[in-house]
Amino acid sequence: MRRMFRLDLAAGLALSVAALINAAGFVAPPPAMADSGPAALTDPVGDVINRDTNAKMQSGTTDIVAATVDSGAQGIVLTFKTQAMGDPTTDPNWASPNTFVSWQVDSNGDGKVDDLIRYSADRATPGGIVSDLTHWSGPGVPAKHCDATGTFDAATGYSLTVAPACMGNPASISYRVQLTYDTSPASPKPPLAFDVLPDQGLAGPVPIFIPTAPAVAPPAGGAPAPAAGATPPTAAAGATPAPKPGAKPPAKPATKSSAPAPVRSPASATPSPAKPAPAVPATGADPALAATGASNTRWLAALGGAFLLLGGLGVMTPADRRRRTA
């Protein structure tokens, strides 16, 4: 009898634990979505080396102290700061061909560099900054070259903006940034200061979020949309206006929603005689529903967990007590 009671107790405990896990899985709030803000890195001061000898050297204009990756409607933005920033548009050391920045980026998650981005002073036109990107999409595929936009600001640092399409529209990137700085441009063999962040490997992956505009619904009645900038046609003089179509019941106004969240792919919308309603994502596209499930499903699951819990408590009740109760 004692062995049977122990078996009943073990079965009851198992059912109770399963019920609690089942209920918790559906009642718990959904996980937070990843933030699309800049992903920041920091680097200790005083780790600059001589690129040729690997000996440590002092160069505040070379010493990288922070770097960020951001993304949005403007594209992918890579930024870094040094301990004592030199302006590439005016600093004579930046005018040397030995002074330049390079970002190495893994844009497909294989741990290898797929993109090389260079940033330097414009030596053909002093006072400017030039930058470009080279992307390798795979073995045997010719490299793709794109221009990038490089800027400098004493407060925000050295910044470079690239179009996501130039990197193959990545969902995330891993990267490192390195700076080579000519400390004595007039010397025949100048000491080249060098720093890199991170010191080993690549940082990341950093999620990339590029919002896309929702699809524009076609006009009612299947008429082609007017071309951008086109002037609507006017009726010819003396022409008889076309008869109005039969009256239709007014369409229900579209429910106003809060500020629409960016979507990765345009959603279709059904045209109606009234103003086109906002685009509705396809079934299963809502990340909140994907994470939490429909409310009906959640309540049914919680109810099932409650029944499991009651069943477990009943199994744990000793057999002799059940007989007396009966």
Would you mind describing this structure in some detail?
- The protein folds into two domains: 2-30 and 292-325; 39-207.
- It is globular.
- The relative contact order is 0.18.
- Helix 1 runs antiparallel to helix 3.
- Residues 1-5, 21-36, 232-297 and 322-326 have low confidence and may be disordered.
- With 326 residues, the protein is of the alpha+beta class.
- Strands 2, 5, 6, 7, 8, 11, 12 and 13 form an eight-stranded antiparallel β-sheet that branches. The protein has a five-stranded antiparallel β-sheet with strand order 1-3-4-10-9, with no helix packed on it.
- The chain has four helices and 13 strands.
- Helix content is 19%, strand content 25%.
Topology:
Elements: H1 2-27, E1 39-42, E2 49-50, E3 64-72, E4 75-82, E5 100-106, E6 115-121, E7 129-135, E8 144-147, E9 149-153, E10 157-162, E11 172-182, E12 192-197, E13 203-207, H2 287-292, H3 295-316, H4 319-325
Antiparallel strand pairs: 1-3, 2-12, 3-4, 4-10, 5-6, 5-11, 6-7, 7-8, 9-10, 11-12, 11-13
